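User: Study the fold:
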Amino acid sequence: MKAIRRFTVRPVLPEPLRALSDLARNLRWSWHAGTRDLFRSVDPERWAAAGGDPVRLLGSVPGERLAALAGDRDFLDRLAAVAGDLDAYMTGDRWYQRQSGRLPAAVAYFSPEFGITAALPQYSGGLGILAGDHLKAASDLGAPLIGVGLLYRHGYFRQSLSRDGWQQEHYPVLDPHELPLDQLKEADGAPAQISLALPGDRSLRARVWVAQVGRIPLLLLDSDIEENDLIERGVTDRLYGGGSEHRLLQEMLLGIGGVRAVRTYCRLTGHAAPEVFHTNEGHAGFLGLERMAELRAGGLDFDAALEAVRAGTVFTTHTPVPAGIDRFDRELVARHFGPHAELPDLEVDRILRLGMETYPGGEPNLFNMAVMGLRLAQRANGVSLLHGQVSREMFAGLWPGFDPEEVPITSVTNGVHAPTWVAPEVYRLGARQIGTQRAEEALSVGDSDRWDSVADIPDQDIWELRRSLRELLVLEVRGRLRASWRQRGAGTAELGWIDGVLDPDVLTIGFARRVPSYKRLTLMLRDRDRLMDLLLHPDRPVQIVVAGKAHPADDGGKRLIQELVRFADDPRVRHRIVFLPDYGMAMAQKLYPGCDIWLNNPLRPLEACGTSGMKAALNGGLNLSVLDGWWDEWFQPDFGWAIPTADGVGTDADRRDDIEAAALYDLLEQRVTRAFYERGRSGLPDRWIEMVRRTLSLLGPKVLAGRMVREYVERLYTPAAHAHRTMSADAARELAEWKATVRGAWHGVTVDHVETSVASATAELGSTLALRVRVGLGSLRPEDVEVQAVAGRVDEEDRITDAAAVPLKPVGAPGAGGEWVYEGPLSLDRTGPFGYTVRVLPSHRLLASGAELGLLAVPSEAVAEAAGLLMR
């Protein structure tokens, strides 16, 4: 019989064990080995059955076992030590508290998904895992973040395979009361609630759940409550599900409702109010509108409120392709705002203009969430150096007239939270080398001196560690493969072969990620004969572990999975290549350490960063990857291999795949397998071990989420907090009025004449040109602009490369026609073809960038021709 109602009965812990509840409800246990060891000792079998989830564990332990533990002095001493360690972690000064200067009092970090632990399945892929690692690293550093997301009652789907290898999706219902969450409550004990107005006098209400991620509160909004009608209850049903209006409502709840949840949380707990709001992708972009509405209520007009909001907002883009951005029909957006819906004090047409693609090639009837995110943020970044470059080119239309390299989008390369992803065996080896405290700091904060100690670890220890990790992976794979085949309908008598799947002494390659087409899951199958030869080589065999989910609506991705599964089902190779369904954090934590090689072969440059290879590297795995994302930035032949790309304009997709697959096979046959199997005088693969050593010592400090969060604090959060403090109501009005004046008068800004002290086409290195420029400013004043000479090497088309801008100074009084003369020196500091131009930019003390307004004036062709020659 099926129950008509489900609820959770929580155990009453004996008084001596009450600290177990606090430990279970702070997700620091997910990356703190000592806490997990304590819970495992409560009941090892139930711990395994609970999937390593302390909340589920405590709900299943019999009362007599709890009573026995309450009288066990050794256990209580361990409990007191672990609880004391958590208290010290939560209250002590950390990296953030030791910094000088006025850092942000708090930062609100919004993301549509968060991958904290498998016990809280609120993630689908890299974006969520990155967000979870961001919070955990911020906690380790002591940075005062508040995370904001949605609580999806179905999370992301669970994946299984049909008998013929087709992906099947399952959506288990999650009960918040069974998760490591607490409800945010008002002083009277009633659940805290936020509400959004919808068209037709309807409302969307949500309760707020709090996940404690170490020192960081993560607020998760839940619309599945009785106060909502059926449609509104389903808004937070599943991650990335539903049609356009469903997605719009999710993003309104995340952005607008998220700000209201933050305000409620700060009111109820006394937490410092955020000075900076960080939008992790465009999904949460509506948060800027809610903050503008708050300021409108305080007396600012739309334009001044926009400037005040922009000052304290950071926007991070994660996609390198326009198709990866959420875009909505403008009429759908318009219907959900205004007098009869949400944010009635903001003019609907002004809201729409923030998201309109008003640039060449844009769709005029679509509202672009990333475009709105960029217009609402004074600071923006991509997630690797290459992705920053791609983003500047992709969004250059928002800053017309500027070269892509001057578009104000910087980059902070992603990192991964080492305490989450480093295997305990790897950690213990490091702690043995440098001590527990130094090892913890090396993984959380990052310090190259600590990582340099890897050089002192004996070769034999490194090789034995790698072999033991490979063996653990083999056991994990066999267990998961057996469970998968049973789901596919196989009987026990059919599965004897699984006991021989994989070999702990064979070179092991891992490939696991989402399965959009650009990640090319099946590139390895391009030449199946060559792949079979690699798998079955008599002396240098390889084995491959593959995992990944396709989006439920992506039949193309599902066909790729099916193609690979059918190959892996072949009895000739199924002991050497496996596909594991239901890829998630729990599997990943076993997979990364056990693989010798991490394979990544996306279409360059479509991988914004790609952090899976970083997690493998922290465990001594070597990367074999296309030069994309983070690998393009940090690759060195000392610790990995680069797959050559065939990304020329004239290469069609099939031809490109053929070329790059052949390059992959060549690398495996000629270099990778030889390095793994060839032995030196010591009987060990000396070259391989040295590459592992260099991976750990050189890449280790770079790939840390601690390094990433420190960069955000220093380069983005702190400047944004300073701008927020500077942007008082009067300053916001001043800046808004100034921008309106400059935009209205810019048509009158001209570069009328340029002359130089050198008449010849050659000059000597180190010499200086004297520039004299006459500009017309119309109704503007010299303090409203900056006149610059822009100089550098020139290419064959006379485009300036590696440009440097030098400000010129006004001299004398304006001429009779209102023109001004500017002068300044221009140093010839490099040899070869050299050129310069002159431009005028808006200038104001409150601008973060001269490109912020997207306005500039340059010489006309006639003026340019009269200005002089290029230096050769």
About this structure: The first strand starts at residue 107 and ends at 110. The longest helix spans residues 459-487. Residues 22 and 83 are 8 Å apart (CA to CA).
